[in-house]
Batch of 3 targets.
Target 1
Amino acid sequence: MGKIAICPGSFDPVTLGHIDIIGRASKMFDKVIVAVLINPNKRPSFDINERIGLLSEATKGIKNIEIVSFDGLLADYAKEKNAVAVVKGLRAVSDFEYEFQMALTNKKLNPELETIFLTANSQYMYLSSSMVKQVASFGGDISDFVPACLYDKIYNRLKGVS
Ligand code: ADP
């Protein structure tokens, strides 16, 4: 069996920054599982099926990925799926502390699991789902931030919502 990696996240909604990381991970591993967090504490702008639908549309060209919903412990889920690594994007220094804590916790829970950080593409260094929400809610142009094929779906949902 080939090497499997997991890219976890909320993807609410998916951005070009996410697609960049998923695409790069798919070249490094035989299979990438994109695990979309159900996250009951947060009220998402897009429900779990919508987030999965948007991700599927944006990653049509990538053959070795599977998109799934996920809740619970990532360390356990990785074991269940025989994944060897978690791949995450690292943007500014502000991501570091939290990601380091998560990586160490997952290592403790599942010592076989590695966390790999890919440096964000400089173009997407300051891009986040919440930034997309903020810009779109005020009617701003989000075409540099989200996949072109998803522009209308994302923009129409977020416009006028604050
Ligand atoms: P966000 O932090 O935007 O809410 P998620 O929780 O959905 O995003 O993030 C999922 C993964 O994608 C995380 O590993 C996060 O670091 C990464 N990521 C998010 N945005 C970017 C970006 N612009 N460039 C690189 N990686 C990113």
Target 2
Amino acid sequence: MSLVEGRSVDPLLTVSGLRKVYEGAGRRVEAVRDLSFTVGAGEFVCLVGPSGCGKTTLLKCVGGLLRPTAGEVRLGGGPVTAPPPGMAVVFQEYGRSLFPWMRVGRNVELPLRQKGLGGERRRELVADALGSVGLADAADAYPWQLSGGMQQRVAIARALAYEPDVLLMDEPFAAVDAQTRADLEDLVRGLWRERGVTVLFVTHDIDEAVYLGQRVIVLSSSPTVVQEELAVDLPVERDQLHTRVAPRFAELRTRVYEQVQAAKRGAAPVEDAGARTYPPR
Ligand code: ADP
Ligand code: MG
């Protein structure tokens, strides 16, 4: 992958002029006003913004699950109008995304059947994905027999087994305890590095965004626009113990925090000559 300013030069995913207005039952909510950004092949981009700012709406539009009111999403050059074959989504509400009457292995296998893969290949991918999330022994359990963190790992395994080119994650760790969350963050970063998958990760947690991403896009309050894009110039090797206490980590989280605060007030981006932003100004 060739990198310029820490990001791939050829955009895989392009969101341009995206607008989403919900209408119905006499109500009209402009959730997303005007969003434009790109994600390069193999990039790890975090979107951070306050609750209710339209993050889930945006991700659903990117995943082809929701039709934008205006603007478009393009993947690999073509417009996204339905869920693209090479994309997998991990939602926040994993409890509802797993089928309780199916064993874990079957849950992970289901999208592979829909993909039309043969039995042997499916078994291989399921075992491999469950192994990568540390649940090799849980294939025969039912989701409700597992803890919340384990269920979320099943949801991640299901997305991985699918071998996506693009992984969309919508606040996937919001409902798990702090220790599990830290483990899952490292798991996702490890998988990103090993598999070269492109990740678009949505969170309201500033530290998580800085810890995980190569780039952080700060969203404003609803109706949403891009408040700022920030390159995360931390080393590729990151770990919970050292990265989070590094001076540069503190600078970056402060910068993102200021932008999120400004976004909440509806103010213009906070200027800071010392911060390295993308694109360079
Ligand atoms: P976030 O994920 O950032 O918390 P959402 O995308 O869920 O934000 O919601 C953004 C805004 O759109 C909110 O004001 C929310 O109430 C509204 N909204 C979301 N889904 C719908 C829907 N199906 N119908 C009407 N309004 C919606
Ligand atoms: Mg949401």
Target 3
Amino acid sequence: MQDMFRFADAYGPAKIIHIYRPKLGLKAILVVDNVAAGPSIGGVRMAPDVSVEECFRLARAMTWKNAAAGLPHGGGKSVIFADPHMDEAAKENLIRAFAVAIGEVTDYIAGPDMGTNEQCMGWVRDEIGRAVGLPAVIGGIPLDEIGATGFGVAAATEVAAPFAGVQLDGARVVVQGFGAVGTHSARFLAEKGAILVAASDSRGTVSDPDGLDIEALIALKQSGGHLTDFCAGEKGDTDAVLDVPCDIWIPAARPDVVRADNVGRLNCKLVPQGANIPFTKEAESILHERGVVVIPDFVANAGGVICASVEYHGGNERSAFDVIDIRIRNNTRLVMEEMRDDAITPRAAALNLARRRVEAAMTTRRWG
Ligand code: NAD
């Protein structure tokens, strides 16, 4: 009994649902965390190796992210345990079955995440009438295509840069995980004068202190290539990205990639967290003591979910960019100022902001 409720605290999770459909081989888990502000929004991740605890932590991160962004939504997350690279028809079957299974869980609105995309959300919407991050052809704002999250990461970086002693024009940027978030973060930061000096994917790292051609790297990835196939730059293994000196180091791959045992390899001033929970608590404390400013995930990478919320409430691409810009700049500034004025970590400042908003929403609800 106690073990089943091992994650329970003052905020949630409201429910944890295990889904199993033996005929299809569908195994999934859904965590709906806190819904005081409104129905939860959170990604559907397809991966073979995510624990219930990781799913809960991701759902909680969505609670804080949605609250910190000031959205009328709580936080949730789901995982379908499967290989995201499976055959397309099999994937469609699995996602449609998952959608039907969560049909009655109306306080959860599915969105895209690692291993799923707009097309997958189209299948979910087709089955149960609700999902965000839809294909444009059925009224969605294709957030990965337009780079909503990367746009927000770049906005947060610009506001936080002076607090970290970084000048954006000419700043050297490293991106770990050159996917949807990583590529667009690099692209929008380059528009502000920053230079990409290294990037990594699951196969390896490419680096060049004089700068890499971002558009050429994006074209390489879009054609199915790996960064280590790039025609220029020095090549290294996946973890070599940790060792590249820079001003801004952007994690945009997976959780817990930087820990106490490898944080000493980072040589940077500012870390806008593009991925969800990419660093352990210990790693963030060590960086704080070293004077490195970390913009917490749920502040820096809220662009995607803000875009999803704008879409859910009937907005368009232009209004999404406007809302992302205003909210992320405002929230990042509040967090940086509280960090400086109260001498606390940026995560503590951001959590204070989010908690204040969730607690205010909970006072309006009968059951919390
Ligand atoms: P993606 O699948 O498009 O890209 C992930 C990239 O990371 C790929 O290039 C992959 O090769 C690389 N990768 C995987 N393991 C790696 C490793 N160990 N080292 C280096 N690279 C590695 O995914 P995405 O949508 O860009 O999401 C990345 C992260 O950002 C995830 O944690 C996701 O939850 C989070 N996130 C995404 C969004 C969004 O809008 N897409 C929004 C908020 C948060």
